[in-house]
Amino acid sequence: MGWSSRNTKRIPNQGEAGDLIVPQGEREPSQFFVWGNLDNQPIIHFDSRKGRVETLVSWIEEVKKGTFLPVEWVFRSELENLSNLNNLTEELHTWQAIVGCELREDGNNDGFFRYGYDGMDFLSFKKETPRWVAAQPQAEKVKEKWEDHPGWSQKNKFYLEKICIKLLQRYLSYKKEALEKTEPPVGKVTHKVIDDSQEILVCEAYGFYPKEIQATWMRDGENWDQGTIRRNVAPNSDGTYYVWISIEIDPKERNRSHCHLEHDGLQEPLVLPFKEETGERLS
Questions:
Q1: What is the DSSP letter of 106?
Q2: Which of 104, 147, 166, 192 is 20 to 30 A from 62 (CA-CA)?
Q3: pLDDT at 269
């Protein structure tokens, strides 16, 4: 499970003490974004301009309010602290943070905090030590400041080893429970005219779970591979899947071809012919 953050802010010139000097009325609000991923699948998004977390998969709706990663604590406070760097010009600067944890097959777990500044590696956290590693000379002052407060490092270590792992286990259980339900495919056949003697029929199957599906073109009741193109099964944002398979035919022989779908969610195979009155022309 991983969370990435991006904070964009225009930083004014700084005083010798490192405090921000912003003339009254000229402070510009920063834009703040967070993306949450589970097994490389986006599950949530936060945009400071909207001020709310948006769920990207249906099963995450089951997560109770308050169980999301505390956005303000994990990202904004550290990122705002980076504005204490010296010699920043009045330009647009971007701070990035990635935090995540993983459960391994051997029962062990791992976690990480990584920060970037204007697209470059900046700081990373080694929870085993626990210490911070500066990737840029500019990051040394931040590293020293954070390590002057051992409680801050221990707090991050505790989050990675305990809180993040518990959240990961909770999200995985919600996902497993939701996706154990079998969803049958919805299918349709569309066509694209090439010329008077050639057209392409496209069979689409979508909204199905689990991933395994047999999608084939049949001609006169037998499997037909000649002139077919198959797209790999791909995930939808809600955790279901979709696939399509096309075939080149002579329009005069259209009635000889049917799309054949087999899936665990179907009591019997779904046979789909092309119907002119319901077909969609592809541009």
A1: T
A2: 104
A3: 93
